[in-house]
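We read letters as residues; the fold follows as tokens. Both lines appear below.
***
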Amino acid sequence: MSVRVGVVVFPGTNCEHDTLAALERAGATATLVWHSEERLEGLDAVVLPGGFAHGDYLRPGALARFSPVMGVVARFAAAGGPVLGICNGFQVLTEAGLLPGALVKNRGLRFLCAPARLRVTSARSVLTCDVEEGTELEIPVNHFSGSYVCDARTLAELRDAERVVLRYVENPNGSIDDIAGVTNAQGNVVGLMPHPERASHALLGSTDGMPLLRALVRAAAGVHAA
């Protein structure tokens, strides 16, 4: 049976169809999940895609965390289910307390939309488990509030437990420790600011996002088989 991935849609989400298509290229059967949904039956993984959930009012992700779906996403994650947040989805995961830290306005207060060079710095997550550490990937960023911040204690914990899964080779937004993506302690919840779905086909100029998405699908397949 095919791995089934739910792509959550909030009012203001705008990357859901790109993400759905990229996941299907990675071998999954993907379906859209509206933010008012209170059940995630039959899903093997959940992705929170990019966009501007609830218009980014107050701050990005601050309202989306209260959507009914986030309660079931939290329970899904607590049970070991793979959860990925991309860009705005990463912001939602931090606001919901499923990942540590926060995303603040970019250095220089500039919106960024450009390719970014990343380095895989840990394989201890569902997004990087099949990607060799040290691998460099070129994946676009598209954000205004993408600078990752956390306190010194949290940063030390992330480093010590190898929970920083991706770092920028050349930091575009001022993120602490060049962080582009982090995972939770169990490795099944991951957030990253760059958009792997925008580097998932030759016609998009790069397929560098596919190793990450395929790793997610394979990790979900393992959960499904269990």
The mean pLDDT is 96.
